[in-house]
Amino acid sequence: MGGIGLPGILLLIILGLLLFGPKKLPELGRALGQTLREFKEGAAGVMKSTEQEVPQQPTQVQQAAPDTTVEQAKNVQEVNKNLPE
Questions:
Q1: Largest CA distance in the chain
Q2: What is the distance between the alpha carbons of residues 26 and 11, in angstroms, rounded to a whole number?
Q3: Which residues, at least 6 apart from 73, have a Cβ–Cβ distance to it below 8 Å?
Q4: Buried-most residue among 16, 36, 44, 56 (CB within 10 A)?
Q5: How far is CA 83 from CA 52, 58, 60, 63, 75, in A?
Q6: CA–CA distance, 71 with 75 (Å, rounded to integer)
Q7: Above 60 in pLDDT, residue 61?
Q8: Is the pLDDT reported for residue 75 higher than 80?
Q9: Which domain holds residue 21?
């Protein structure tokens, strides 16, 4: 299941020329490119601000696994006490 291929692209170009004419088509392409560029910059800004607002914090271990020793369980409890809430 490939893309539209060369015949499909040619058909779209011909339809675009018939619908909008040769003078209007470059303006539409330029506007579309500018819109996509602004969307990409906006999305990158949102991603960057989200990363800054939500710092990565360690999560608390709820309980030790059944096969852990008592000493390991105490270590888990100590780690949980030292984590910020």
A1: 79
A2: 17
A3: 64
A4: 16
A5: 20, 7, 7, 15, 13
A6: 6
A7: no
A8: no
A9: 16-42
Asked if 58 and 85 count as a contact pair (C-beta separation under 8 A), the reply is no
In the structure encoding, which two tokens stand for residue 44, read together?
């990158």
Q: Which pair of structure tokens corresponds to residue 56?
A: 């990565």
- Distance between CA atoms of 25 and 19, rounded to whole angstroms? 9
pLDDT digits (tens, 9 = 90+) for 14-45: 898 898 888 888 898 899 899 999 999 999 88
Structural domain contains residue 29: yes
- Does some domain include residue 27? yes
| Residue (of 82, 40, 80) closest to 64 by Cα position | 80
Give the count of domains, the chain.
1
Whether 37 maps to a domain, the answer reads yes
| Chain centre to alpha carbon of residue 24 | 33
